[in-house]
Amino acid sequence: MYQLLYNFTGDVIISTIVVALIPLTIILIYALFAIWLERKVSAHMQDRLGPMRTGWHGWLQTIADMIKMIQKEDTIAAEADKKLFNIAPVLVFTGSFAAYAAIPFSSALIGSEIEVGLFYIVAISSLVVVGILMAGWASNNKYSLLGAMRSAAQIVSYEIPTALVVLTMVMYTGTFSLTKISEMQTPYFWNWNILGGPEFGITKFLLIPFMIVAASIMFISTLAEVNRTPFDIPEAESELVAGYFTEYSGMKWGMFMLAEYANMLAVSAVVSILFFGGYQSPFGYLGNLLNIKWLIPFEQIFWFLLKGLILVFVQMWLRWTLPRLRVDQLMTVCWKYLIPYAVVNLIFVGIISLL
Amino acid sequence: MALKTETMILNMGPQHPSTHGVLRLELELEGELIKNVKPHIGYLHRCFEKHAEAMTYPQVIPYTDRMDYLASMYNNFGYVLAVEKLLGIQVPERVEYIRVIMGELQRIASHLVAIGTYGLDIGAFTPFLYCFRDREKILSLFEMTCGARLLYNYMWIGGLSHDIHPDFVRLTKEFIKSFRPTIDELNYLLSYNKIFIERTANIGVLPLDTAINYGVTGPVLRGSGLAFDLRKNEPYSIYDRFDFDIPVGKGLMGTVGDCWDRYYVRVQEMEQSLRIIEQAIDQIPEGDVQAAIPKRIKPPKGTVYFRVENPRGELGYFIISDGSPNPFRVKVRAPSFVNLEVLGELCKGHLVADVVAILGSIDIVLGEVDR
Asked: Model-level pTM?
């Protein structure tokens, strides 16, 4: 993408800005949509209608909320550490936004085609922890501090099962590059990694149960990393009011929300790339059928966003169904169940791949 | 050199999403572990008892509505029974039946709020709205009867403010029919949910002897395993005519007397209330809804203590009459107030998240705690 633009414009700065703006636009539009979707999903699950007044079925509601949020006074508590307080939301958003640099939306649309994309995403998403801790500390509020501590403990712990599953997949595919992993799972859903990958043979069928376990572990631990129910302990409303962003208002609060929704899509994207074929279509391409080559990248974007949004929908579905775990139970789930299973799974996948 | 450490004091409330009103809890924390809990009450004190002294007997009824605002009907019920006992009057059969039906509907409505908000405390948002959907149906039954949805002022000394609507019996039967399946739905969604059980079973265990020593009543006491229900043990009104069971905590998911037990007692009580209503609704006799009582109510000199089983426990009214139209003294034994005192005992050694779970399982209404 960058190379293409560079060849076209011949200017480093313009092509960099354009490349950076495309994922940002996608995130912003997606966040507007996802917040609306969350409200509608929760409403229909709870026997209500949700926003109905602004536009058709309230589709303008998030935009109206955004306008309200921008107008709001930006309050900073007198006792708060102003510098850290202001940096924190930016840092949190940067962490989740930076992950998009390496996510291939289609074979043509990718911010930066780095060889170690997967590694980069795992690393950069940890930046969020720093921001959260900063927010909790700078707010000078006990609830915020407790929320931030919980969050840091949670995200750091759950990175281990995530990393183990990522390791499994890297071992299986032999590459860190997200584009290559996506390319391997050529169109048609039976080639997806969750169904044992593209190679037909006995190993494919042996791998299926282990891949399902790996995908489940990955999904659960990413759920914890983005602080969604049943792991939304850092922002547990009934205990800690709003956790680390209790003291924030206006657009800074908006940035935390934006980061949360951006994170949801980012982790869903990683799960879908690792296990569900990424941007590959499950049924082959219309572009190939009609012999229109330029159609294929657009189809890929469609499939990628669809898969991402389905996983985001599952996250919402869980949120509005399940209660919340307690802090120690959360750690139990991670250390006693997910990590051992992930390790065993890693070994088995390794043995099967050797066959 | 050892690091100097000290415990952290965290003020939970008076504005906090899960203190169920304006309760302030002073938590002494070591990390997230509770060392001590001090409840501070009084933010909603409205001098009910003092006010009552300046009112005539019927004028006190609207004030009783405002104590436990989730169970207004039952507060009326207790008060009018106490005054009627003082006056020594007998109310018509029809009134008795309607009062029991209203009381039990109120019990269901109150427990629905308790269960729904308990889910909310644990982090499950959806059951809350399911509960409120059903509560709404009960509230419209009340609205149809007396025009009010929260504070009814419905039961009057010697009778009722209004007779029931002609459609009331049919609609109540419809409600019973539609409500039974939703209890099962609620159970599958919340009560038997693995995470919910993990959060509530073996948490805040209240042994029976501690419960009795603290004087707790209602579902909190029954959750600890004692089948004590004033409707059965000391039947008032016409409760002795109905066939129903007293659900008690059995420790199905953990220890007897844990949060889950207290929660589940409420779920089962709703089913029992449905049974009572079902039996009563077909037997409502024809007749007047007001007994012949003097226009100015002047009870003879004397004292009375009357207790009823409110959704939260034993609601007692102690009234001293000096023979004038105003009560000399009205003292309320509020179940929430007594039940709240056991909180400190239950919370010790648990985590912050458990305080919310324990407080929710005690189910207090601050309007009644502070009065």
From this structure: 0.83
